[in-house]
Design brief:
284 residues; Cytochrome Bc1 Complex, Chain A, domain 1; single chain; 5 strands; alpha+beta; 11 helices; 43% helix
Length: 284
């Protein structure tokens, strides 16, 4: 059985993306994308992607380079290289108008989902935006929770994060409303918190907190050799495996002024899409 709101992101993606394939789920827009695929289609896809010359192999731990090369050649050497299908996806045009849709559905409560377009994972703004979402929704001390859940009691829960897509992605914000709170009031309250970021009216300690939290979690994660291998593989995919040693510096270089500038740049109404859920459930 589907979870309540479980398909919300799938519903808002076609609102945000009109050209790029991110507008639908990886499995396709509907069941026909799967049912109409032939066995040859599946083979062609597999042998143009799951091949040694399209793979990244990372070994992390107590092993020498010589032994790593020997084992890689032993287990992967006999597998023939293939023809890699070039990734040539159409770019999403810049959004120039605010978009929204309201749905009446059988969900536990009214809810708001909002997204804003951002650049690709390699964008220079990525680290600023990532810390910005931590300021907004970094646990119970995040600004959204503090203001809209704890103080004003407009939401039962609220969150914000980046999709971190390799191609230009999204800032995603979602919240479940308390009973008897109307959507317009809740939406205005979200915008008020975002305006606070634009106006740079928060203490230096708040920025220090999110930077320190990222550094601590990253250092701790990389004490695990699997996590380190995954990070190395991902940075190799992005084109610079050595960035694993500079990522913390990139986050520590983010300033309050950079967050305010990014908030003004990306949180424009013309860059936003909103999905409003109105619950059809009646109070018992």
């Amino acid at each position: 059985m589907n979870q309540p709101y479980g398909d919300a992101i799938l519903k808002i993606r076609p609102l945000a993306y009109k050209v790029h394939p991110y507008r639908w789920a990886a499995i396709g827009a509907d069941i026909s994308h799967v049912s109409s695929a032939s066995l040859q289609d599946i083979k062609d896809f597999f042998y143009s992607h799951y091949i040694p010359n399209n793979a990244i192999l990372t070994l992390s731990g107590n092993i020498t380079a010589g032994k790593a090369i020997m084992l890689a050649e032993k287990w992967f050497g006999p597998i023939s290289a293939g023809r890699v299908k070039q990734r040539d996806l159409p770019p999403e045009p810049e959004q120039e108008e605010e978009r929204s849709v309201t749905l009446e559905e059988d969900v536990p409560s009214d809810a708001i989902y909002k997204v804003w377009h951002i650049g690709p994972r390699k964008s220079a703004d990525f680290y600023t935006l990532d810390l910005m979402t931590d300021i907004l929704a970094g646990g119970d001390s995040g600004r959204l929770h503090t203001s809209l859940v704890r103080d004003k009691k407009l939401f039962s829960e609220i969150n914000a994060y980046l999709t971190s897509d390799i191609d230009p992605g999204l800032i995603v914000l979602n919240g479940k409303l308390m009973n008897d709170v109307d959507l317009a009031t809740a939406d205005d309250a979200i915008n008020e918190v975002i305006t606070g970021l634009m106006e740079n009216n928060y203490p230096d300690q708040e920025m220090d907190k999110v930077r320190n939290k990222f550094e601590a979690s990253t250092v701790f994660a990389h004490t695990n050799i699997l996590n380190k291998a995954i990070s190395l593989s991902y940075f190799e995919l992005l084109g610079d495996p050595d960035f694993i040693n500079r990522e913390i510096d990139a986050y520590n270089s983010v300033t309050r002024e950079m967050v305010a500038t990014a908030a003004k740049k990306y949180f424009r109404p013309s860059n936003s899409c909103s999905l409003y859920y109105k619950s059809t459930r009646k109070e018992s």
